Amino acid sequence: QVQVVESGGGVVQPGTSLRLSCAASGFVFSRYGMHWVRQAPGKGLEWAASVSLDGSNKYYAKSVEGRFTISRDNSNNLLYLDMNSLRAEDTAVYFCARDPSPIRPYYFDSWGRGTLVTVSS
Amino acid sequence: EIVMTQSPATLSVSPGERATLSCRASQSVSSNLAWYQQKPGQAPRLLIYAASTRATDIPARFSGSGSGTDFTLTISSLQSEDFAVYYCQQYNDWPPLTFGGGTKVAIK
Lengths: 121, 108
Prior knowledge:
The complex is a heterodimer. Chain A is mainly beta. Chain A has no helices and eleven strands. Chain A has strands at 3-7, 10-12, 18-25, 33-39, 45-51, 58-60, 68-73, 78-83, 92-99, 110-111, 115-119. The radius of gyration of chain A is 13 Å and the shape is globular. The termini of chain A are far apart. The relative contact order of chain A is 0.32. The mean pLDDT of chain A is 97. By secondary structure, chain B is mostly beta strands. Chain B has strands spanning 4-7, 10-13, 19-25, 33-38, 45-49, 53-54, 62-67, 70-75, 85-90, 98-99, 103-107. In chain B, β9 and β10 (98-99) form a beta hairpin. Classes of the chains: A mainly beta, B mainly beta. Chain A binds chain B through residues 35, 44-47, 50, 59-62, 95, 104-114, and chain B through 32, 34, 36, 38, 42-46, 49, 55, 87, 89, 91, 94-102.
């Protein structure tokens, strides 16, 4: 069945970097757009970044633009989020999510369980 | 940026009763709206897309309606497993893709 599993979260200091990974299985990864969506503790959902099928188009929320980079490795069914200059307000559970549209960002039809990133000194 | 506003923030309902959740967009999103359910400690689950189309394996007691700026998610007869937080999300105008703040459906 469709499965996405995030990894790479942890506790980091402000100003440092972290890379999140998402391993996909059960579907043809290269045929789907992919996203990162985050949720701060006790808060709602916030879309963070999207990448197109082949990785050529990338979109970011203003809150992360210039600091985060989304990328994908279609040969190994992996999605990444490189996070630089981390701030306390980046503390959240980060979900990897699949988009059913091959054309442009739509919605999220499969989600991972998330990985927690805590930015604290 | 399109702002999505959900109401009420908390809805207290007895099992077996109907629940009606609202979502309003700051400008028209046509029918490009999705609904999600999230239980504590779990990932969100897609319920509805295109404003009114149920996702795979979603029970018929969940229904969505609306277009333009005003949308409704109705749960016809609440089951114990339906007590959760529900989010709407627009995908008409992006970036960014935007979510509402959520409605918590609690046991009355």
